[in-house]
Amino acid sequence: MDKQTAVIIPARYASSRLKGKPLIEVGGKPIIQWVFEKAVQATLADRVIIATDNQKIYETALSFGAEAEMTSEAHHSGSDRIAEVAERHPEIGYIVNLQGDEPMIDPANIDKVIRMVKFDDNADVSTLVTEIKDLKEVNDPNLVKCVFDMNNYALYFSRSKIPYERNEGHSKFYGHIGIYGYKREALFKMTHANQTPLELTESLEQLRVLQLGMKIKVDFSETKPIGIDTMEDLNNFKSKILAGAKG
């Protein structure tokens, strides 16, 4: 029997900057519902599961028809949370980690991530990048940059400007979009391993994958989705929803 492909959305209540973020309502729906409704539009996903450590988020997810599972409160990352769910389901062979604060994610981008990890035998993990031209963004440590080889496998991710331009005009700059696809075995290999030196240095979990010798395949997105981390992000999302309603 073919292995299932599942989009798993980690959603925790105790966000450091916007407490209870998944339950904040915009346009009459909680943010987690906006994310779920985008995820179910992905044509290559067999199921979508919301993974949470909070009873209210769990009940809210069930109320709008989502499949949801409770997870441990002890997890330090979304990857650990989705791995707990995946371990319960041996029928799931491919997993997408879709952040619960990405209500504007393009379903086509979810399919890109699935396609890479499902149909490329060499890809353990998959992710997306988008070209960045704004020098301020290139130098912003909050925007993670990615460089990759000629076959679009990631070489490195960094908060620094990479590549360093000793000679200008030869390379473009690419910002990382934090959505991941995993082969089942790769997810468990990564989450069961200790943090690596590069991961601890840059505070980037994907560097653990690279230091463990696994391959991350990269594809391109024309747009950068709106992640909701701050009140400013929330207001920007509200403005877009309001503009769409008026349009």
Strand content: 15-25%
Biggest sheet descriptor: 7 strands, mixed
What structural class do the secondary elements suggest? Answer: alpha/beta
* Count of extended strands: 11
Based on the model shown, name its key terms:
247 residues; alpha/beta; Spore Coat Polysaccharide Biosynthesis Protein SpsA, Chain A; 7-stranded mixed β-sheet; two-stranded antiparallel ribbon; 33% helix; 25% strand; globular
Structure characterization notes:
With about 250 residues, the chain is an alpha/beta fold. The chain has helices at about 30-40, 55-65, 80-85, 105-120, 135-140, 185-190, 195-200, 205-210, 230-245; strands at about 5-10, 25, 30, 45-50, 65-70, 90-95, 125-130, 145-150, 155-160, 175-185, 215-220. The strands form 3 sheets. The chain has a 7-stranded mixed beta sheet. Strands 2-3 form a two-stranded antiparallel sheet. A two-stranded antiparallel ribbon has the order 8-9. It is built from 9 helices and 11 strands. It has a single domain, classed as Spore Coat Polysaccharide Biosynthesis Protein SpsA, Chain A. The mean pLDDT is about 95. The protein is about 35% helix and about 25% strand.
